[in-house]
Amino acid sequence: MKPRRIDLALQGGGTHGAFTWGVLDRLLADERIRIGSVSGSSAGAMNAVALAAGWTEGGSRGAREALRRLWARVADSLHMARWAEAWLGATPGLLAPLPAPPWQAAWSLAQAWFVPANGNPLREVLQDTIDFELVRRCTEIQLYLGATNVRSGQLRIFRGAQIDLDAVLASACLPMLFAAVEIDGEAYWDGGYMGNPSLLPLLADSPHLDLMLVQVHPSRRKSVPLTPTQILDRINEISFNGSLVKELRALAVLRKLVQDEGIDTRHARAPLLRKAAALRVHRIEGGEQLDPLDTTGSLATPRQHLLALHREGYAAADRWLLENCSHLGRRGTVDIVAEYLVD
Q1: Cβ contacts of residue 330 below 8 Å, gap of 6+?
Q2: Fewer CB atoms inside 10 A, N or C side of the chain?
Q3: 7 within 8 A of 206, measured Cβ to Cβ
Q4: Does residue 231 contact residue 102 with C-beta atoms inside 8 Å?
Q5: Beta pairing partners, 149
Q6: Distance CA 33, CA 201 (A)
Q7: Whole-angstrom Cα distance, residue 295 to residue 90?
């Protein structure tokens, strides 16, 4: 099979980014796959820069090694482990003394774990593992990192020479845990609020027609949350899935309009219209299978926890490739019109 170029949309989600690490590890090991462009927010942005730096240094093998170094450093960071415990959802042990509504429990956790800008544990993690000069020299893989402008609420996309340490810190800045990151006089929070990740740069700039979504948050849950912890976790999931769902719905509306009106997009002047009609969408999702890993016991050993998430991601990508790799370049494996348009 001739190698297929695919674009990646990497979702953020705290240490669940290690699931994405596993997915990337498997995709990079497959000679049938070539990565063209990557859009990422939060942990997705961290994975993106590690991938690009490693690729510049040593191709697919270098990218896999760079991702391994990044997550090994994450595991070694005590502050990161504490941040992970707070972010992955207030565990029962932490919530037990707080007989209060979920929002109040979240605020109490934020006060307990808040880290000032100069003490952000991600800064040392990224400084120790990512050579941003290599990232900016990566021409074969285009990167788009999203962050949310605090004052305007608008999404900013960092690309090319704009991508540096502060851009990644801004993209991964959870406002109740870390101080806002200032860039060019503007303050930024986590990109997941407005684009988790944003698909627009991939639609507008990339020539490739196969788009792989790597989602860590479940698209759908089987049951309704009942406990304060479950409710708070589900609110987080819906919030951080919302921007992606809106972009996919907009894409589905455009595609259905093209189909219903019989528009020949091959001759359309707008590149976005041509791309929307021809795009082949795929998805590898963590979903509810990651829930058993989010326990106090697993968080007590961060390395084991992250490696377990990596294994889940690797296995999920392996299953997808076994079942769907032959569809690359031919057809999408996610019907966005059926899934995202409600009658």
Answers
A1: 280
A2: C
A3: yes
A4: yes
A5: 188
A6: 21
A7: 10
Q: What is the pLDDT of residues 214-270, one digit of tens each?
A: 999 888 888 998 888 888 888 888 888 889 999 999 999 999 988 888 888 877 777
pTM, two decimals, is 0.88
Residue 295: phi and psi, rounded to 5, are -125, 160
- The encoded tokens of residue 213 equal 């979504």
Residue 35 pLDDT greater than 90, yes or no: yes
Task: With beta carbons less than 8 A apart as the criterion, state whether 16 and 290 touch.
Answer: yes
| Average pLDDT score over residue span 78-86 | 49
What is the pLDDT, as a whole number, of residue 208? 95
CA atoms of 203 and 283, how far apart (whole Å): 16
Residue 234 pairs with which residues in a beta bridge? none
Q: Could you give phi then psi for residue 88, rounded to 5 degrees?
A: -70, 5
Q: Number of H helices and number of E strands within the chain?
A: 14, 8
Residues facing residue 187 across a β-bridge: 182
* One-letter amino acid of 155: L
Q: What amino acid is encoded at 197 in this protein? A: P
Nearest CA-CA partner of 38 in 184, 171, 166, 217: 171
Q: Name the nearest CA neighbour of 283 among 234, 320, 230.
A: 320
Residue 12 three-state SS:
coil
Residues facing residue 282 across a β-bridge: 212
pLDDT of 298 over the 50 cut:
no
Helices (H), 183-293: 200-205, 228-261, 271-278
Task: Please state, in angstroms and as integers, the Cα–Cα distance from residue 288 to each residue in 52, 223, 296, following that order.
Answer: 29, 11, 17
**CB half-sphere exposure, 177, CA atoms < 13 A:** 23
Q: Rounded to the nearest 5 degrees, what angle is found at the Cα of 76, between the Cα atoms of 72 and 81?
A: 110
Q: How far apart are CA 87 and CA 74, in angstroms?
A: 14
Report the C-alpha gap between 34 and 2 in whole angstroms.
Answer: 10
Q: What is the pLDDT of residue 102?
A: 40
